[in-house]
Amino acid sequence: MLNLTVAQRRDLKARAHPLNPVVIIGNAGLTPAVLDEIERSLKSHDLLKIRVMNDDREARETMLQEICEVLNAGPVQHIGKILIVYRPLAIPIAKAPKRRPGKSLTKKQIGSKGPGK
């Protein structure tokens, strides 16, 4: 299970606030099919909101712990019937390479960036 600091959890809660639940756990509970769906969702999104349709708070807390242990994720928040889990993406998104400072564009590069382009 991934351990998160208080500051990390605070930032992740702020990021998760506008998200909609991606996975819904029904009355059947945490089945292998549900765990597979959560795994697939965590591969494309690092932060995931899950809705649980169970009224038992202790059962929801147990589900959150099991999800985090099985999928190597970190528990961010459990509020009502919403669980929020975080796992960093395996492949970080590459950023565009930075230009070296002080290197100016050539006349050809400037000309190709004419109006309307």
Structural features:
117 residues; alpha+beta; 4-stranded mixed beta sheet; 4 helices; elongated
For the record, what is the CATH homologous superfamily label of the domain at 6-86?
YhbY-like
Biggest beta-sheet profile? 4 strands, mixed
Oligomer: single chain
CATH architecture of the domain at 6-86: 2-Layer Sandwich
Average pLDDT across residues? 87
Outline the low-pLDDT stretches: none
- What structural category characterises the helix and strand content? alpha+beta
What fraction strand?
15-25%
Number of helices: 4
Strand order of the largest sheet: 1-2-4-3
Envelope shape: elongated
Number of strands: 4
CATH topology of the domain at 6-86: Translation Initiation Factor IF3
Regarding CATH, which class of the domain at 6-86?
A: Alpha Beta
* N-C termini distance: 49 Å
Q: What string gives the helices and strands in order?
A: HEHEHEEH
- Rg, alpha carbons: 21 Å
Indicate the percent of residues in helices: 25-40%
